[in-house]
Structure formats: structure tokens, C-alpha cells
């Protein structure tokens, strides 16, 4: 398996940047730079993170739709789905000491898909 080059970005990176440290009106130069990095394949995210951000229906969601769709990859490759399934089985294994609400919250979000995509494409942890 070829090692991936680049950075797979979670929703929290976009959300915290937009709401705090790199808000559109505070550091406007951050956002075009992020687009340039996405255009050359250095940064990207998965469709499930994209969908999670769009549910916010805010300025970040609008920016994602208008500008960042080229930086979104599909997470539904068969190898990613298979890895995702293994992650979910592990999380819901009765021998794991997770609370049900934590299991359900994890399983309902983009995180297990992001982890599966990273694992399949050999991203470093």
C-alpha cells in the first residue's frame, strides 16, 4: 500500500478555524491558502466530514459548498467500508468499556469513517 502524502482534515479543524483562530474576517488569507493546498492535493477531507459541516448551515457551510468541494474525497470505497465495519465492531464489542452513549455518538459521526480512510490509505497517526 502506498503511503499517502498530505493532510486529511477533520471537521473540528475547519470549525475551530472558522469560529475562532482563523475566522473569515480575522485571518482572511488563511482560507485562500487552504484552497490552494486542496487544489494541489496537500489537504483534503472526506465526504462525511463535508456533510457534517454542511449541517451547520452557517458561513463555513456556505464556504465549503462554494469553494472546497474539490478537496473532498469519497469514503465509500470497499476497503474503507470494510475497515469502518471493523472499527464499529471493536467499539461495540461488549469487552470494550465504553458507555452506550459514547459508542452511539462515535458511530453516528464522521470520525470512524475518517479513521478508516486514514488507515486504508496509510496515513500516519
Oligomer: single chain
Spatial strand arrangement across the major sheet: 1-2-3
Q: How many domain modules? A: 2
Strand content: 5-15%
Please summarize the sheet with the most strands. 3 strands, parallel
Shape: globular
Uncertain spans = none
Helix tally?
7
* End-to-end gap: 16 Å
Number of strands: 3
Coarse structural class: mainly alpha
Encode the helix/strand succession as letters.
EHHEHHEHHH
Rg over alpha carbons: 16 Å
Mean pLDDT: 92
- Fraction of helical residues: 55-70%
Description:
The protein is mostly helical. It has two domains: 67 residues, no CATH class; 43 residues. It is built from seven helices and three strands. It has a three-stranded parallel β-sheet with strand order 1-2-3. Helix 5 packs across helix 7. It is globular. The model has no long low-confidence stretch (mean pLDDT 92).
Amino acid at each position: 500500500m502506498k503511503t499517502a502524502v498530505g493532510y486529511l482534515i477533520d471537521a473540528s479543524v475547519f470549525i475551530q478555524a472558522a469560529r475562532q483562530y482563523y475566522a473569515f474576517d480575522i485571518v482572511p488569507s488563511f482560507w485562500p491558502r487552504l484552497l490552494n493546498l486542496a487544489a494541489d492535493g496537500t489537504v483534503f477531507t472526506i465526504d462525511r466530514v463535508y456533510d457534517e459541516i454542511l449541517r451547520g448551515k452557517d458561513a463555513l457551510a456556505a464556504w465549503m459548498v462554494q469553494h472546497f468541494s474539490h478537496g473532498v474525497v469519497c469514503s465509500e470505497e470497499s476497503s474503507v467500508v470494510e475497515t469502518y465495519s471493523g472499527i464499529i465492531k471493536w467499539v461495540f464489542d461488549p469487552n470494550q468499556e465504553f458507555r452506550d452513549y459514547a459508542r452511539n455518538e462515535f458511530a453516528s459521526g464522521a470520525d470512524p469513517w475518517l479513521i478508516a480512510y486514514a488507515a486504508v490509505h496509510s496515513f500516519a497517526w
